């Protein structure tokens, strides 16, 4: 029973397209995140949501728009995709606004923009 | 041995030996630290955590050491196995409403 699940696992698309990545967690956590991992494996926080409200937006271009319909879901919509958006995107969740317990990660979505 | 440079730092160890992976963290106010393991094609998985009021914590085959004086964290893996091959990340909670911030990662390669 997957705790944090993301779809799709792989996404290949052309520059200029709009795409969405979905994330769901069944852990009952109230905080969810999107992280971006580049080709050097560096993991960088993009967004943090608590109880459907945006808490953190780490200077991400406004082409990226997260949406949280309920606290178990945090989707990521990307407009006008660019080559530099190619990366692996990870959704994560934790209990509490301040994660003094670990964050649980999904399997990742590998986005390739061609 | 260990190598650094443009690529991810890599630590190569012989199967059965102990591994030590090091991490320097940035914020002296950070009070919670986690080690994550990321296998190829998977998301990071929790290994062990430590709070700033401790300097050592042990799990099964793993030990985390925290030196707040020099802002250094290490992960020791005893009797390293091929299944330990992965990229290891340290992460810190910098306080306030901030999410975990990850270090650069170290690739552990176990030689059978």
| Helix-and-strand structural type of chain A | mainly beta
What's the helical proportion of residues of chain B? under 10%
**Molecular shape of chain A:** globular
Could you say which overall geometry of chain B the principal axes of the C-alpha atoms support?
globular
The greatest interface between two protein chains, and residues involved on each side, is: A-B, 26 and 28 residues
> Can you write the helix and strand succession of chain A as a string?
EEEEEEEEEEE
Strand content of chain B: over 45%
Could you give the distance between the termini of chain A? 34 Å
Helix/strand order of chain B, N-terminal first: EEEEEEEEEEE
How would a textbook summarize the main sheet of chain A?
A: 7 strands, mixed
Helix content of chain A: under 10%
Q: What profile does the largest beta sheet of chain B have?
A: 7 strands, mixed
Q: Roughly what fraction of the amino acids of chain A lie in strands? A: over 45%
> Care to count the β-strands of chain B?
11
Mean pLDDT of chain B: 90
Number of helices of chain B: 0
Number of helices of chain A: 0
User: On the 0-100 scale, what is the average pLDDT of chain A?
Assistant: 91
- What is the CA-based Rg of chain B, rounded? 14 Å
Radius of gyration of chain A: 13 Å
Instruction: Count every beta strand of chain A, where a strand is a DSSP E run of 2 or more residues.
Output: 11
What is the strand and helix layout of this fold?
The complex is a heterodimer of chains A (114) and B (112).
Chain A: E1 4-7, E2 10-13, E3 19-25, E4 31-37, E5 43-50, E6 53-57, E7 64-70, E8 73-78, E9 87-94, E10 104-105, E11 109-113
Chain B: E1 2-3, E2 10-14, E3 19-24, E4 32-38, E5 45-51, E6 56-58, E7 62-67, E8 72-77, E9 86-93, E10 101-102, E11 106-111
Parallel strand pairs in B: 2-11
Antiparallel strand pairs in B: 1-2, 3-8, 4-5, 4-9, 6-7, 7-8, 9-10, 9-11
């Amino acid at each position: 029973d997957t705790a944090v699940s993301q779809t799709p696992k792989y996404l290949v698309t052309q520059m200029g397209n709009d795409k969405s990545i979905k994330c769901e967690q069944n852990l009952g956590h109230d905080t969810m995140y999107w992280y971006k991992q580049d080709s050097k494996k560096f993991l960088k926080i993009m967004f943090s949501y608590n109880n459907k409200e945006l808490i953190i937006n780490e200077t991400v271009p406004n082409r990226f728009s997260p949406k949280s319909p309920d606290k178990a879901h945090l989707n990521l919509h990307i407009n006008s995709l660019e080559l530099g958006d190619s990366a692996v995107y990870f959704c994560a969740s934790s209990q509490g606004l301040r994660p003094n317990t670990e964050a649980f990660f999904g399997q990742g979505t590998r986005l390739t923009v061609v | 041995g260990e190598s650094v440079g443009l690529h991810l730092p890599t630590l190569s160890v012989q199967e059965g030996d102990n591994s030590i992976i090091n991490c320097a963290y940035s914020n002296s106010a950070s009070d919670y630290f986690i080690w994550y393991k990321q296998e190829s094609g998977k998301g990071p998985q929790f290994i062990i955590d430590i709070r700033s009021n401790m300097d050592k914590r042990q799990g099964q085959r793993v030990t985390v050491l925290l030196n707040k004086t020099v802002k250094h964290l290490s992960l020791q893996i005893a009797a390293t196995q091929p299944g330990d091959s992965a990229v290891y990340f340290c992460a810190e909670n910098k306080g306030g409403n901030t999410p975990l911030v990850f270090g650069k990662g170290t690739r552990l390669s176990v030689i059978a």
